[in-house]
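Budget justification note: compute hours in this period were largely spent on complex prediction jobs such as the one shown. Inputs:
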Amino acid sequence: MDFKNSDPVTGPRTEDHLPHTAEAGVKIVIVGGFGVGKTTMVGSVSEIRPLTTEETMTQAGIGVDDNYGSDSKTATTVAMDFGRISITDQLVLYLFGTPGQERFWFLWNGLFEGALGAVVLLDTRRLEVSFDVIGRLEERGVPFVVAVNTFPDAPRYPVEELRSALDLPREIPIVECDVRRRASSRDVLMTLLRFLHSLARAKAPA
Amino acid sequence: MTPPRRRRRYPKENPPPPPQPAGEDAEAQDGPPPKNPERLYIITGAAVEDGERAPIDLVTLIVASAELPPSATPEQSALLRICQAPLSVAEISAYLNLPFSVVTVLLTELLAAELVQARAPVVRQARADRSLLEAVMHGLQKL
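Corresponding output:
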């Protein structure tokens, strides 16, 4: 990594500046297998050109044994594409998606912590690649909805068949979407928000 | 055509055993001395070398709060320059092309020196409250 004085750092474009009233950021994480359309979804709803942040992790943190400092570990860089939606002058929503291997995301400290929830994006041609990530979200107690990105040549299953295959309880929404379309991606996010709202309502009845 | 079926991971995998300091020592005796991954990045000053990092989230909004001191490093001045308007830590990481953990260390120094402010810390509660969710829904509807 070079960080030289002479390297010009390109900051945000003027039109990408948040107002000075911006106070708080919230985040939603989009998860799913490689090539399922996470970055496309981020890009279709983001008000800024999607950016990439990264984190360096060591293999030592990945296994169950914590042989910290041993010679065998190698550094792995996990890249995360993200976009931004200004909700109000005070509140900003960030969407994170990643092309990397999903097992690494859960080692990214704080990625899921404090997240409103997650969207599991599915490709019905490769349903099984999402099984692991669904299990990990369940174990962590991260609320999520399932969105099926409808590729033209992908098999179409009735929602209840998918629910059964994914072994998901009835209350978890499963919706179809075309993440290339902004309105469709927005509807997926709305489905997640309504689901989160119902969870919050159930927890603290008015 | 039937889709493949997910099998739940029950019984749950055993949690990793707690790290044993004794084992670590043994490791150190056997092999070369442990390497600290943070040492890869020597751009951070001594101020926080052993201190705690500030509780910074990817979406914490940062804004510059003071003029650039003459003693600022190139990384600090770049960060202060792009944070004239509020910017999330994720965006800072992207624009500076530095890993999140390195930006966290940089920000810990700048926060301690009161050169930047972190806006309202992200609520780290298990579930967001309804008024926040309603605000987000309202904002999304305008998209």
